[in-house]
Amino acid sequence: MLVHSRGARWALWAIFLVLFVPLFALPLLVVLGASFATHWSGVLPSGLTTGNYRAATRGEALQALTTSLVTALTASLLALTAGTWAALAAAALKKRHRRLLDALFVLPVAVPSVVVGLSVLVAFSQPPLLLNGTGSIVIVAHTVLVTAFAHQSVSAAIVRLDPGYEQAAASLGARPAYVLWRVRLPLLLPSLTAAAGLCFALSMGELSATMMLYPPDWTPLPVLIFAATDRGALFTGSAVAVVLMAATLLVLLAVSRVRTRASYR
Amino acid sequence: MTTDLTPRTAPTTTPDVHAARPGARRGRRLRGAAPLLWAAPPVALLAVFFLYPLALVVRQSVQPDTGGVSLKPYADVFASPAFREALWTTVWLALASTAGCLVLGFLLALVIAFVPFPGARAVARFIDVFLSFPSFLITLALLFVYGRTGLANGLWTGATGAPDGPFAFLTTPWGVLLAEVTYFTPFVMRPLLAAFAQLDTAQLEAAGSLGARAPRIVRQVIWPEALPALAAGGSLVLVLCLNEFGIVLFTGAKGVTTLPMLVYGKAILESDYPGACVVAVVNVLISVGLYGLYRVVSRRAGA
Description:
A: MetI-like fold; 11 helices; 0% strand; B: mainly alpha; MetI-like fold; 14 helices; 79% helix; flat
């Protein structure tokens, strides 16, 4: 215990609450409250209704939800495969090469997502690979963006991996592929699922690159939320935002269950 | 007990590893280029879907619509007041947000880790959840709290009878600053909390029993441990703030233009692709440069 005086402790907790609640808890509560309202010009929202949700779970919004889910699932699976492969391959390289590979795969974090969107748009609007106007261009951009995060978290886990296990397996005559499949990947499973959850959440909320290149028939949820708030439909927008948050949380919860089951092994 | 402990302690395994190493290394050398070959497929994918598109952006930035190669797009963009203003806004907003996040994140993480209260763990869990939501939600929420007819202004007009409330900062850079500090502070808190979890509380107890008071313990025991985490979190937040787009877009303010906003505006709203590519190149250079610098610095500072 850092602070022993009782009064000082309470004072600290009060400061914490004063900073924490308005900054972090209030925004989420406000969006939740607004999603059930039609007006908000006082302390509490007024005109309580569930109509926003009826609008947010049918037609255009429902289609946007499926679009977002398909995009996020595909992008995170692709990113997880590419990122894990790169991380495993990097671990076997010499230090100089490993540094280079890590730097290459971290690069998409540093490059602004708007620029990633612009570059993908420029590159795939011309002959060798024409993707502009299809949903796959959105998936490509999301995959590029989240691969960096998958690679980072998996390679951090590989560094922490105890080499004793794979050496034991190898010394008992297991081939590299068998060691990878039966020893390394199972040991990495918790961080793989964590990385998958991270990628999924990032892709669900991705707006910057998507705004640059989404085709009219492949509109993910964040774009729809922006369109709603931009035309002044703030309350419908909040309901769609709550749907987005709920869908993200549900998938994260499912992923974390995989993680806890894996850690019993 | 001792037999139980031996497999887990590092010193007993390390000599084995070293003994096995020469053979392992020779085996790896014999295979020669195999590791490099295994690294090729992901690198090829990255090249096709990320590096090649980026190269095209750079190429287009020096190729005006009229054809040929010239630096005229750069000259045009650098000369425009809109670009200069966007550059300045981006940089000072990112620096101010990072500073705010570092101060706020350090304070909050300090309380959660060292002056824990009932529910502190739930708060730490909440931080993780917060990280998985998109940034524009914060701006959306702030519209309800500080918007023209929002919660705060509604309270004010209700209490005083005035026609307009005093809160009109949302469409100014200060609104963006508030949203960025709110959204990115958890990115500083998470590495800090991880670092604090590894700090041995016996050190704090020892310092305390030797007569050090809380401020001194924070300065001399906790602060050095926190530095690497602060450097890592701060660098990430700085880059994310430089690149932030959703918060600025949702603010909908004509007065606040950042570089990513300018890229979007030029490319999508004005269809001026060479101009957009020029701004994009500048933005990439700033972000990647700063990120590289901070990775070097944080590696030196701590780990």
